Automatic annotation (TrEMBL):
InterPro entries: AB_hydrolase_fold, AB_hydrolase_lipase, Lipase_euk. The keyword NAD does not apply. Keywords: Glycoprotein, Hydrolase, Lipid degradation, Lipid metabolism, Signal. This is Lipase. One of its GO terms (molecular function) is hydrolase activity, acting on ester bonds. The active site is at S176, D344, H373. Residues 1-24 form the signal peptide. Transmembrane segments: none annotated. The keyword Cell membrane does not apply. Residues 39-101 form the Partial AB-hydrolase lipase domain. It comes from Lupinus luteus. One of its GO terms (biological process) is lipid catabolic process. Gene3D superfamilies: alpha/beta hydrolase. Belongs to the AB hydrolase superfamily. Lipase family.
Amino acid sequence: MARRRWLAALAITVSVLFGDIADSFDGGGHPKQQLSMCAELILPAGYPCSEYMIETKDGFLLGLQRVSSSSYLRFGSAPQRGPPVLLQHGLFMAGDAWFLNNPEESLGFILADHGFDVWVGNVRGTRWSHGHISLSEKKKKFWDWSWEELALYDLAEMINYINSVTNSKLFVVGHSQGTIMSLAAFTQPEIVEKVEAAALLSPISYLDHVSAPFVLRMVSMHIDQIILDMGVHQLNFKSEWGASLLVSICDSGLNCEDMLASITGQNCCFNESRVAYYLEQEPHPSSSKNLCHLFQMIRKGTFSKYDYGMLKNLIVYGMSNPPKFDLRSIPKSLPLWMAYGGNDALADITDFQHTLKELQSTPEVVYLENYGHVDFILSLQAKRDLYDPMIRFFKSLGKSSSI
């Protein structure tokens, strides 16, 4: 009875939080009328912010934001921009993830106040990106991608664009899926040559030791394949269908009393009173194919391109199995800083150690025993635990010694 009451409460919460919002979304899960991310989140906090739109090689239009220190507004001076840093968000999130706490607690604001030239990435399909040059978001083909395309097209184009605008190599900061994208992209010489260094929060390349009960239940039920077989290509948990899916998985016998912990691990340090505010921004849509690719990694223990099955793999790749992303091809000369948590049920310690063994370099590593997956972007202590050490790492490389 208690579980049934909780499920009813979840359904009511979803309705209250998402019901009115869902009515204002178009077929791709994007608000029909919305402020820009700069106007909604950055400028009201007192930070200069400008919007950019870039086009990937396969025609997707991505939103980029550029953020400067609030001191430029306070003192009326023109920005003296430091080294560029790109912030790359995780799955079902977007660039707003770096600005959800107060300015003194949010990495995007903290980096700007340290003088970095902050660029904020938003991958295809998220609310701050801008669709496609020819494809409607209601079409299957619009959602025919996974993190592989996010790495080799979206992240690649963001890095190319920032490099061309600033005429400088850049720092890359990724969280969760943003680290999968980064590690895959860094195996490509034409991408990594434009990167000065990278900081990876909850770094993931292997996923076969994921321990999150909710995720493992979805994997065992083959939810990813069922969704694709049903012809659902956009995965939007702010839709009525997406919310019902969550409820049905909990109703299958899974204890969802703390749904966030059942997905991410027990988080120690974020402000639970702000959850309603977080949910105003998150989650963002992604593709069902993307979820399927991630679940392939959990089932197979591989860090590879999308597996279409033997016959189609032969057509697409010329081999029966999809090619692997070889972490050993990431240049030893690329400085890496990585932070992982003891309570992270998605970026498991065993998988993280697997990643470290395959890298040529020896990254600088920070381990936080009580951190779960969400703490790395929302912890109230993250400035002390993570961001200050990260900034010291960046500054130690010499390029940022002037800030």
